[in-house]
User: What shape does this take?
Amino acid sequence: MTIDVPDTVSRVLVLSGPSGSGKSTIVDRLLADSGVSVREAVSATTRSPRPTEVDGKDYYFLSQEEFSQKQQRGEFVECAEVHGVGDWYGTLATEIQLAHDENAWALLEIDVEGALAVMDHYPDALTIFLLAPSMEEYRRRLESRGTESQDAIERRIGTAEGEVQRADRYRYQVVNDDLDRAVREITEILLAWEEKIHA
Ligand code: ADP
Ligand code: 5GP
Assistant: This one.
């Protein structure tokens, strides 16, 4: 595979894709063994934690009021209401700074609206849109993950269609068919960009 890398690069990796495309699974793999120093930017959200989620690790879980205070103080690089049910999500500027202080890539797992705002802020960001091999596969994966109600799954599938239409705004589109293959493809892209930084 030939990887087209721009002349200037920012150590900001944006990963988007419909719910169920496999973002979290792939992020875990990249953090564990990509061979490149990567630090996940922990997002803030107003949604409630799932039973296994830990505050400060999976998200900073904030009340609506705490979230809008941060928004008013300009602490977010971007923020958006995702899935249209009143849940807000945002990337804190301090999280990107923390990664860069460690000479690491800041990895942002965010929705398309947020990603477009980050692209304005960091035009040299590495942006990847992750896809499942078919629309039916999103539903299958969300049902097998079992963390959402049927209603929430339907909303997420509804959001997916609009998101997929904007996949071409990203520098790379990766199909997560076979997990190992998709992780390898993303790792190769990341390594090519890292090489450019050291060139
Ligand atoms: P997202 O973070 O994009 O919502 P997840 O990483 O939670 O997606 O993945 C959704 C579900 O699909 C999980 O149960 C995960 O184990 C499973 N999954 C991830 N990648 C694959 C794959 N390549 N093939 C089959 N199932 C997968
Ligand atoms: P979940 O509720 O499943 O954790 O995440 C729902 C959606 O919110 C996902 O599509 C995820 O990419 C997006 N998301 C998570 N963090 C952020 C963020 O900081 N900003 C934006 N814009 N979207 C986010």
Q: What stands out?
A: The chain has one domain: 12-198.
